Give the backbone structure.
Amino acid sequence: MSDPAITVSKSLDSKVNRLVADPGCRDFILADAKDADTAFGLAAPGLSAGGDRLQGPFRTLDEFRGHIREIVAQGLVDVMLMSASTSEVLAIDEGLFAESTVTPAVRMNDTTDIWLAAGAGTYPRQPALPFATTTIS
């Protein structure tokens, strides 16, 4: 676990500050959307190299989260968008972002995350119902 006394500057904060100070600056914000596990079920982590007859053709959720850890360690993105469950594991339980320049992000209204599984046919005509599945800290 990381030392809570150590504060790492987030690249997102630095870039937003520069963009506000100078709208003509050439900075851009790079976000990586790794929240497919909210809608794609077993296929969300992507195909496993070579596949496995016992496991099936898809990577495990642990492998998927391992890729997120690798990307965060590289520090090349400004924002990592994750599902609530993945953020809970990586950001809260592991403290992955505490000493990283990457900002963790989650869509806090899960009803906007899972529309794909139900089909998009009536999604725009149905109001979201409030509920929460995540911890905000």
The chain is about 30% helix and 15% strand. The mean pLDDT is 82.
